[in-house]
Amino acid sequence: MEDKRNIQIIEWEHLDKKKFYVFGVAMTMMIRVSVYPFTLIRTRLQVQKGKSLYHGTFDAFIKILRADGVTGLYRGFLVNTFTLISGQCYVTTYELTRKFVADYSQSNTVKSLVAGGSASLVAQSITVPIDVVSQHLMMQRKGEKMGRFQVRGNPKGQGVVAFGQTKDIIRQILRADGLRGFYRGYVASLLTYIPNSAVWWPFYHFYAGLPWWRSG
């Protein structure tokens, strides 16, 4: 016995918006908490000169723990969580753009191509400035300076509170590069993510539209 089926396409009007936004943010946050230390380590390994500070991932993990504790593995995390907004904006832009394009074309390929590119444009416009600030915060460590900017301690010798560090980094970026400093790598990000998203979604809908047979 054979059952011919296609994968159902979920459109904007089918979504339970409240559940989507609440559970989407919660699940993404859980994933972000688990992988963020390795994002920080990767960033430091890419920036360091040769093997001047760390000899590898495990070595970096141990040294950061010894020097700064667990909080050292989460430098810039609070700022980085704002990129969760870009993820929700991506899906919202994608679905609303598909709905808008549907007034002019019923082709899933056309709708997905335009919507995928538009969604990435919006998401990267939000993500890049946040990433720039959070990556500078990742570079903060006791001892040798790693990045372009160094967070200044307060006169009493105590560390600057989390968002105090963020404000300090933002001021230094503005002073050094102006507003353009928050969009370093923006064009490269657009050239990477817009084509990827614009091509991926049409293939997804093409794949979803294929007939599938299940043997009973």
TrEMBL record:
Pfam families with a match to the protein in the record:
Mito_carr
- Could you say which residues form the signal peptide? none
For this protein, the parts annotated as crossing the membrane are 20-41, 181-203
Alphabetically ordered keywords of this record: Membrane, Transmembrane, Transmembrane helix, Transport
Single Gene Ontology MF annotation: branched-chain amino acid transmembrane transporter activity
Localisation: Membrane
**Protein's GO biological process:** branched-chain amino acid catabolic process
How is this protein situated with respect to the membrane? Multi-pass membrane protein
Principal subcellular localization: membrane
Q: Which domain of life is it from?
A: Eukaryota
Q: Where are the Solcar repeats?
A: 18-100, 107-210
Its GO CC terms? membrane; mitochondrion
Q: Which InterPro entries match?
A: MCP_dom_sf (IPR023395), MCP_transmembrane (IPR018108), SLC25A44 (IPR042164)
| UniProt record similarity statement | Belongs to the mitochondrial carrier (TC 2.A.29) family.
Spell out the protein name for this chain: Solute carrier family 25 member 44 isoform X4
Organism of origin? Tursiops truncatus
The gene it comes from is SLC25A44
